[in-house]
Amino acid sequence: MAGHISPKSTYYAIFAALMVLTAITVAVAFVNLGSFNFPVALGIAITKATLVILFFMHARYSSKLTKLFVGTAFFFLAILLTLTMTDYLSRGMKTYPGGAAGSGYGVRTP
Amino acid sequence: MAEALTAHGDHGGPHAHHPDLQHHFDTLEQQHEAATLGMWLFLITEVLFFGGLFLAYMLYRVWYPVAWAEASRELDITLGAFNTAVLIGSSLTMAMGVRAAQTGKQRATVVWILLTMALGLVFLIVKYFEYKEKFEHHHVPGVNFMFEGPQAGPAQIYFSLYFLMTGLHATHMIIGFFIMAVIAWMAHKKRFTPEWYTPVEISGLYWHFVDIVWIFLFPLLYLVDRAGHFA
Amino acid sequence: MAMSITQPRVDYLNHEHTLASWLLTKDHKRIGILYLLVVTAAFFVGGLFATLLRLELATPAGDYVAADTYNKLFTMHGVTMVFFVLIPAVPTILGNFVLPLMLGAKDVAFPKINLLSWYIFTTGFLFTVYAMVSGGVDTGWTFYTPYSSRASNTNVMATGLGVFITGFSSILTGLNFMVTIHRMRAPGLTWFRLPLFVWAIYATSLVQILGTPVIAITVLALAIERFLHFGIFDAALGGDPVLFQHMFWFYSHPAVYIMILPPMGAISEVIATFSRKTIFGYSFVAFSSLAIAIFGFLVWAHHMFVSGISVYSALVFSFLTYAVAIPSAIKVFNWTATLYRGAIWLQAPMMWALAFIGLFLIGGLTGIFTASLGIDVHLHDTYFVVAHFHFIMVGGAIMGYFAGLHYWWPKITGRMYSDIWAKVAAIIVFCGFNLTFGPQFILGYLGMPRRYWAYPPEFQTLNVLSSAGASILAVGYILVGIYLVASLFWGKVAGDNPWHATGLEWTTQSPPLPHNFETQPIVTEDAYEYAVREVKVG
User: Fold this and answer.
1) Residue numbers in A near C301 (CB within 8 A)
2) Domain-located, residue C18
3) Angle, to 10 degrees, between the axis of helix C96-103 and the axis of helix C28-56?
4) Minimal Cα–Cα distance from A102 to chain C, Å?
5) Residue C415, helix vs strand vs coil
6) pLDDT > 60? residue C216
7) What is the mean pLDDT of residues C340-348?
8) Neighbours of C427 (CB within 10 A)
9) Hey, are the CB atoms on B157 and C520 less than 8 Å from each other?
10) Which of left, alpha, beta for B138 (phi over 0: left; psi -120 to 50: alpha)?
11) Cβ neighbours of residue C266 closer than 8 Å, sequence gap 6 or more
12) Are C316 and A93 an interchain contact pair (Cβ–Cβ within 8 Å)?
């Protein structure tokens, strides 16, 4: 009945990786990478989360169904975020040349 | 209830009448798989639960990058980074606790769970001091909110999301703390064996999830603009 | 072998009698009955609100209730019916009762959590009823900001919290069912041998798990905005009130699939049994349930076409909305093909099922009209939309629920109801329903707005027809209640399988044993193997 038992060294290694990644994310935050700062920070966070899910939560050693469930959660979160943003990112777009720009409400220029 | 079990059929084997086997399951294996599946499904709901706030966060960050940058700089990055390390550490101790339960090491299980709780408590204490500082600076949204400059309106939205997201996260941590207390007590009473340690494992899954939420909250709230994009 | 059918000696109803044995039960069958009681009570509460508002609408002037009261009536009618009747009815009553039996299991995966679900549901219901009677809510069941967050001085927070609490019940039930279906099927019961009701419940559970948390956080954020003045929807701070709508409808559109998928599952069972045929295109119907569940998450902003979203995203959502109609249409085609050349046995469940197909078809097609961006600009917030969703919710979901309830009633209670009265009631409900909601399509097309307390006099005739229909509908529903309750005392003993149906639930006694089966069933054939059975019925 036992699930997969990871060696202690695996856990310590993952912990070390997570700490290193945390240090990197803090350090990089102070470097001006322009518009790349956000994707880099997000990418590091996703990497950390993936390590926790795969190794601390044993998803790597779990059934395909479990992996499907994990993927499903983030897939639908992605739908929530991206489909909503199709509205907000296109609010300023004109529907024909020289014409009205949709409702225009909430269009922000930085 | 006793007579109902005879209809169960004879599966033989060492687990047929294991005291922790619930009567509607056939084997401990099936019961364990069901419990872990159930917890993963619950965690899916939690992803979507926090997800709504991440949506609001994303929208307003796109709309108000300057306000987001200014407001984020009001947070203490040292405390945030420290708390991140604390929570990652608590995930390590949690994983070790599950491992100890898996390998039948009763006392070690208790110790690792207590360590997890202690680290969680440290996190919450630091959070308390952060919130207190926010309160003193009038950064709590509502009638007493004060923020200098033209970004005050969107900054109040930022802080609304800050408190909603970290508050929801802290609530989950408090609940997790009490769950861990129960698990620690059960471990202390030697309830767990290598054949049955399911509550430790599924509580562990919950705890790791709460850690993952913070792994995202930290950069999104504390590290918006530390390099002076708009300064 | 003619033998008089006798009541079984021990069943889940009579083996324990105390109140505690009901209130602390872990038996999914008893929990189904507990839900039946609360959902039926909610149906009456929602029906009462509908009665009052249809009374007001019988005359053009606002002369029966005050305008604010009218706003509260339609709001509370919506909240009650959506959250406490339509979403729970088939999954928690029929699903709870029948699912483990269909799977050959002894119970659901987490019986204690199942009971907790009921307690959470009942608490949420009582809390919401309290909010309604102690002042009411007038924002519409959709709670749009900024009215709900800033201006309304009614019990928005309390109602919101009631809905929040109830959402957990939905999540836990969905979680329970999904794990049960994955891990507790009988030996030999592979996925493609499952009855289609199980596929429907599975798809529904998927929606419950993925969607409900989003409305939970939305309602929580609204309550906090109202209570603590955290302003994420507040335009004065630079927030967007339409964000609330995005978050609200991300759940509330898939929620309508929670409401319709389980009744569709029940319809599949009824159509197969009473045509004595396997469902045509079984795998298409099974996959269409999953397709509806997944596609249903991609269309929510079709409720927001005139709220100020961008034209381009409106186009995307309109296109996706057409796409989501396809799996529903597939089901209707397959049910129809099942009926063709079937040996139709017109018992009461079948009458409800046939009514479902026709009325769901109309409701679905009118959904296509509103999916069109150009048309919806004119029809949005008119009675056309009201008629559309009532055809699906009442003509579809409630009829489907009644079909299932009439189908499984003998299994649940061990008794048969009066078939004559059931058929009469089905006809009364069908006529009353069409008279109530048919005229509303025309009213909407002519321009009568919804949620209006008074209207121009030229709309009166159609409104009077609608209100008259509502009274007939009420008679029909009350009649259903009467003969079903009467069957408990004077109904004929049903026997294991009064419909000579396939399915594991019909292989055990009626009412079932506390632990469902004497011995673990083993499955060796597909669902709906009517071709190999020769039973003369009727």
Assistant:
1) 83, 87
2) no
3) 140
4) 6
5) strand
6) yes
7) 95
8) 13
9) no
10) left
11) C90, C94, C197, C200, C400, C401, C403, C404, C407
12) no
Residue C426 sits in a domain whose CATH number is 1.20.210.10
Closest CA to C115 of C177, C37, C24, C16: C24
Say yes or no: B52 contacts chain C, CB-CB below 8 A: yes
- Domain parsing of chain B, residue ranges: 26-222
CB contact under 8 A, B55 and A81: yes
Residue C383 is assigned to a structural domain of this protein: yes
Which site among C113, C214, C217, C222 would you substitute to test the B interface, given the most B Cβ atoms closer than 10 Å to its Cβ? C217
Cα distance between residue C379 and residue C373, in whole Å: 10
Global pTM?
0.94
| Interchain pair A45, B54: CB under 8 A | no
pLDDT (tens digit per residue) in B35-82: 999 999 999 999 999 999 999 999 999 999 999 999 999 999 999 999
Question: How far apart (Å, rounded) are the C-alpha atoms in residues B211 and B173?
Answer: 9
Quickly count: other Cβ atoms within 10 Å of residue C197's Cβ: 30
- Considering the domain boundaries, does residue C8 fall inside one? no
* Number of domains comprising chain C: 1
The pLDDT of residue C9 is 82
B48 and C214 in contact by Cβ < 8 A? yes
Residue C342: give the domain boundaries. Answer: 26-532
Average pLDDT score, chain C = 95
Q: Which one of B25, B59, B164 has the shortest CB-CB distance to C221?
A: B164
CATH 1.20.120.80, applies to B26-222: yes
> Which among A73, A95, A103 has the least Cβ separation from residue C308?
A103
* ipTM for this prediction: 0.94
- If you measure CA to CA, which chain B residue comes closest to C182? B34
The answer to whether position C86 is within a domain reads: yes
Give the separation between CA B22 and CA C372, rounded to whole angstroms: 53
C182, C217, C234 member nearest B53 (Cβ): C217
- B212 contacts A52? CB cut-off 8 A: yes
Q: How far apart are the first and last CA of chain C?
A: 17
How far is the C-alpha of C303 from the C-alpha of C314, rounded, in Å? Answer: 10
Count residue pairs from A and B with Cβ separation < 8 A.
Answer: 141
Distances (CA, A) of C447 to C75, C379, C382, C383, C441: 21, 8, 6, 8, 10
Mind telling me how many Å the CA of A1 is from chain C's nearest CA?
15
- Asked if residues C176 and C118 have their Cβ atoms less than 8 Å apart, the reply is no
Cα C273 to Cα C302: distance, rounded to the nearest angstrom? 37
Residues C137-169: pLDDT tens digits?
999 999 999 999 988 989 999 999 999 999 999
How many residues does this entry show for chain B?
231
Per-residue model confidence (pLDDT) at position C115? 98
C214 CB neighbours in chain A (<8 A) are 80
